[in-house]
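Field reference: sequence -> structure
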Amino acid sequence: MRPRSLRSMKSRRGRINRDVSTCFGYYAEAIKRHKCGTNTHDEMNEAHEIYRGTCNGSRFGLIGCWEMLRDLDKWRPIDLEVPSSGGGSSKRSKPDTPTDEGPTTRARRRPDGVKKAKRKGKSVACFGIQNVGSSEIQNLESFTQALSEMNVIKGKHKDVEKRRINVAERMLEYQKERDAIKVRKKEGEKRFKLFSVLLAKQNLSEDEKESYLKLNQQFAHLLG
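Structure field:
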């Protein structure tokens, strides 16, 4: 089995991540619809129905990936509660500085230059890379391991299929050889029967003599 390239694995991971993320979103929606009296099977069926209705009737075909990823922290559905409008901080209702009745003017900040913007972007990117959580790394490693296991299983299935095809081809060749042996045996029995008839006959025609001479060369060793 030829190993996958890094680009192929990234593309495959992106497709699986997109489809599984979509299904998990619908699964979370199904959980919200059925708060009690249902089980995981019912909620997953509801998620499949939502997925099929949203994705032009196509079915979700990555059940194995969903089973592997469902218990990870990243993929667990979380209920997000929207804060009420009356629970805001009192600091926002009070202005930080007193305001005059007349119009106020605000000083415009000079926009950053190109070099400064690049430096700021690099610093933000480095900060984000350094602060990547261990859970994200574990999720990526778990996903990569699951994908590798799926590829190994697929490779084993291909090997079994190749072996089955080879055995079937050998059986077919063996059957052809057996049929050819049966045909040759029947032809030999017919020729020996004709030789026995010609041997017992006293007066032979020219054609019969010619056939007798040919058959005599073939079966003379049987007469001693």
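Note: The chain has a mean pLDDT of 70.
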